[in-house]
């Protein structure tokens, strides 16, 4: 059996689903790249986007801990923001925010 | 119930979530984010529905487990959302197996690791085994494999992600569906109340195997959830965790209410948080007063058809089961105290005897 290439010495960039045929897979459909779902952007499912009001944010991180998509990240200045590549716009962060500083704004 | 209700928020008797402008209470768990690991082993870009409680539960569980873990997963929502073929959302080694044999696969992995470590083929360090399955894959289809693994005493942690129906294939009833819930195979109508049987008590079934650790966990209480997964992984021998996971698609609830519904499930006594450590029951969270069941059911249109009589009947049973659990926990605590006292007394007597016989 061919040894799966590690992430480091993988010369070819990641290929999306439509670029692959059945011959391109390892035996047993072993996936050699970890966390490759990051190549698939779920942000376009969103109809509303969370927007943080940093004047009221207390940087507690409740939005970060409750995000099912791990799409909330901490900025270097300590405040939080959504990764709009992956945020599906479920609104959990806005609902659970302690100071209610997150607003769900319509996507345009 | 729509996503957009302006600034009005669903309030509960415990005062959560807060209306705007109200001062913050001091007992909030706002420090949790500073206490849990920052690393993500469950990557973004997985295809869970908006507001999926299951995805959050898995994310928190993997945070607790860290990188040294091997995961086995049954067929179900979790497999479908994480690995559409060229993509995988897993940052840890992961294997997908058939619906019924998650626990068998996990026990195989555990046995293989043991042998390979003994033969020196892999570095001698602790690698934990984690198994995830849905409620169908645990309570119905995978029950015999789970029972076997628990009985054989493999060192694994089994997490049942309970969204109370077969959500992956389109909301069919499972053994874990609560009484009165409307699903596509137990639809509510003139002649039917919806699901006509009561929820299968999986944590009690697992605890009846006399395994060292059984717990129920709820991702609405993230610190508690992570602590329980850690405790389960650190336990020598099999551990079982029953994780509540809200499903906005199957329960027809609003996507942003998943966490709130989970919290209400515990506050109404529908899903009490407890642990069974070596047969000893510990109730982790006992709300001062249980909230009316209606608080919980009115947010979920799968219970929309229930009349007040039905709700009263269900509530009576929920309260009875909760009280029984509470009594059990109190009795176990009392028994534990008695045993401790006896041990101290015995030690004292021994010491006295020793000093008496040894002048």
Description:
The complex is a heterodimer of chains A (108) and B (359). Chain A is mainly β and 108 residues long. Chain A is built from 2 helices and 4 strands, in the order E-H-E-E-H-E. In chain A, a hairpin with a 5-residue loop joins strand 2 (72-74) and strand 3 (80-82). The radius of gyration of chain A is 18 Å and the shape is elongated. Chain B starts with 31 loop residues before the first helix and ends with a helix. Residues 1-18 and 23-27 of chain B have low confidence and may be disordered. Chain B has 359 residues and is an alpha/beta fold. Chain B has a single domain (36-317), classed as Thiamin diphosphate (ThDP)-binding fold, Pyr/PP domains (Rossmann fold, 3-Layer(aba) Sandwich), CATH 3.40.50.
Order of helices and strands of chain A: EHEEHE
The span between the termini of chain B is: 81 Å
CATH architecture label name of the largest domain in chain A: 2-Layer Sandwich
Query: What's the number of domains of chain B?
Result: 1
* DSSP strand tally of chain A: 4
Stretches of chain B where pLDDT is under 50 for at least 5 consecutive residues are: 1-18, 23-27
Gap between N and C termini of chain A = 50 Å
CATH topology of the largest domain in chain A: Alpha-Beta Plaits
Q: Please bin the fraction of helical residues of chain B.
A: 40-55%
Average pLDDT, all residues of chain A: 84
By CATH, the architecture of chain B is named: 3-Layer(aba) Sandwich
Q: Spatial order of the strands in the main sheet of chain A?
A: 1-4
């Amino acid at each position: 059996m061919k040894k799966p290439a590690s992430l480091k010495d993988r010369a070819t960039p990641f290929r999306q689903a439509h670029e692959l045929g059945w011959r391109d897979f390892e035996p047993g459909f072993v996936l050699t790249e970890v966390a490759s779902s990051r190549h698939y952007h779920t942000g376009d499912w969103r109809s509303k986007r969370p927007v943080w009001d940093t004047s009221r944010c207390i940087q507690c991180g409740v939005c970060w801990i409750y995000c099912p998509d791990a799409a909330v990240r901490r900025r270097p200045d300590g405040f939080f923001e959504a990764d709009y590549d992956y945020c599906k716009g479920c609104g959990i962060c806005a609902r659970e925010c302690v100071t209610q500083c997150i607003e769900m704004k319509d996507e345009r | 119930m729509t996503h957009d209700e302006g600034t009005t928020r669903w309030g509960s008797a415990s005062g959560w979530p807060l209306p705007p402008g109200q001062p913050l209470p001091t007992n909030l768990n706002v420090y949790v984010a500073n206490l849990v690991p920052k690393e993500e082993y469950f990557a973004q870009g997985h295809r869970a529905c908006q507001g999926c409680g299951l995805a959050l539960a898995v994310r928190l569980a993997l945070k607790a487990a860290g990188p040294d873990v091997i995961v086995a997963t049954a067929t179900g929502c979790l497999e479908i959302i994480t690995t559409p073929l060229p993509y995988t959302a897993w940052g840890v080694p992961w294997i997908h197996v058939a619906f019924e044999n998650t626990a068998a696969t996990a026990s195989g992995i555990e046995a293989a690791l043991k042998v390979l470590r003994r033969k020196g083929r892999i570095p001698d360090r602790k690698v934990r085994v984690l198994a995830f399955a849905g409620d169908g894959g645990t309570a119905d289809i995978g029950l015999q494999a789970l029972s076997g693994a628990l009985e054989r005493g493999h060192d694994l942690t089994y997490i049942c992600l309970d969204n109370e129906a077969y959500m992956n294939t389109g909301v069919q009833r499972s053994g874990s569906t609560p009484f009165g819930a409307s699903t596509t195979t137990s639809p509510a109508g003139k002649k039917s109340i919806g699901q006509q049987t009561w929820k299968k008590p999986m944590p009690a079934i697992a605890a009846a195997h006399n395994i060292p650790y059984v717990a129920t966990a709820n991702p609405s209480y993230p610190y508690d959830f992570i602590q329980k997964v850690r405790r389960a992984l650190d336990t020598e021998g099999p551990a079982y965790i029953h994780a509540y996971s809200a499903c906005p698609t199957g329960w027809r609830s609003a996507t942003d209410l998943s966490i709130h519904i989970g919290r209400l499930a515990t506050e109404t006594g529908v899903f009490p948080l407890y642990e069974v450590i070596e047969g000893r029951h510990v109730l982790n969270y006992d709300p001062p007063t249980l909230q009316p069941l209606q608080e919980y059911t009115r947010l979920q249109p799968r219970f929309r058809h229930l009349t007040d009589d039905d709700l009263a009947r269900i509530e009576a049973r929920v309260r009875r089961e909760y009280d029984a659990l509470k009594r059990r926990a109190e009795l176990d605590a009392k028994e534990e105290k008695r045993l401790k006292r006896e041990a101290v007394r015995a030690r004292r007597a021994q010491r006295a005897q020793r000093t008496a016989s040894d002048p």
